[in-house]
Amino acid sequence: MGKRINRQSVVTLLGVLLVYAIVQGSILMDILPPFIALTLIQVCIFIILSTSLNLINGITGQFSIGHAGFMAIGAYMAAIVVVKFQGPLMLALLAGALVSALAGFLIGLPTLRLKGDYLAIATLGFGEIVRIIFLNMEYVGGASGFSVPKTITWTWAFWLMVISVIIIRNFIYSTHGRACISIRENEIAADVMGINTTKYKIMAFTIGAFFAGLAGGIYANYLYIIQPLTFSFLKSFDILVMVVLGGLGSLTGSILGAVVMTVVSAALSGWPEWRLVITAILLIVMMIFRPKGLLGTKEFSLSFLGKKGEKNASSKD
Asked: Where is coiled-coil annotated (predicted)?
């Protein structure tokens, strides 16, 4: 078991380093087209968003569709620190993430007593309230947008994404994460067994909001300008689709869903009037043939290679 885990960890680390080295080398040699560079940064941002939402929706079993609201808080807070107070980038990102986490905690206290559709409506309302507030706030440009200097690079976006995924993964496999999974499977049984269900739901909600705010800060400091319209319900829906596509409850599924949806969206950018239609058709087909998502609740690992090899060997015998 230990050898398999060590082997998988080494292969994963080598893969991460290889991806970073290839992209960074292409950037340094100036052979990477700007559009592809933008798409890669967006992949990093959406991986953070999808894995953090998966912690709420997939791991804890809640139904939140207000993730764009936390992303907006993180984006505007990070932009304010950089533009208004000339603060360093790391401080801006941390401030945006912490304020988003605080908002998640305050919103989670009353709303997480709700369940199902009622929780979804409450979080949707929260996201729209945040958007309308920024839309009417002249301090951050209102509807015209807020200009932010571009300070995020591939290195920043990639390693912040890697760190975020590692932290979320470690939380999922901790005792706290197991408590969240028990709530997803049967909240009443978890409560009877002595698990403080409200505490763990708020904990997952707060951590998810923290990383959504971090993704918003990365977004704001890369794309020069942020506008309230960017953080509408459609953004929350896009993130939710990534989680469902990859598989609710699967961390690697959320990563895969974010990569697939971002790349498909970028590939269809030349047909803006057909992009949403084609994406919807792909999702309908996906739900027919893979209703639990690409990976379901399973995690992608190297173990299936060994099992497949063993199966082939036994069949030959």
From this structure: none
Query: Do 174 and 239 meet the contact criterion of CB atoms below 8 Å apart?
Result: no
Statement: residue 310 has pLDDT above 50: no
The pLDDT value given to residue 223: 87
pLDDT digits (tens, 9 = 90+) for 228-239: 999 998 899 899
Would you say 122 and 204 are in contact if contact means Cβ atoms under 8 Å apart? no
What separation, in Å, do the N-terminal and C-terminal C-alpha atoms of the chain show?
Answer: 25
Torsion sign, CA atoms 253, 258, 260, 261: positive
CB atoms within 10 A of CB 28: 9
Helix (H) / strand (E) element for 225: namely: strand 225-226
239, 49 in Cβ contact below 8 A?
Answer: yes
- What is the rounded CA–CA span in Å between residue 99 and residue 124? 19
Q: Summarize pLDDT for 20-79 with one digit per residue, the tens.
A: 999 999 999 989 999 999 999 999 999 999 999 999 999 998 889 999 999 999 999 999
DSSP secondary structure letter of residue 248: T
The residues spanned by each domain of the chain are: 33-236
Coil, strand or helix: which one is 224?
coil
For residue range 75-131, list pLDDT tens digits in order: 999 999 999 999 899 999 999 999 999 999 998 888 878 887 888 899 999 999 999
CB proximity list for 95: less than 8 A, separation 6 or greater: 77, 78, 81, 87
- For helices 154-172 and 2-28, give the axis angle rounded to 10 degrees: 160
pTM to 2 decimal places: 0.90
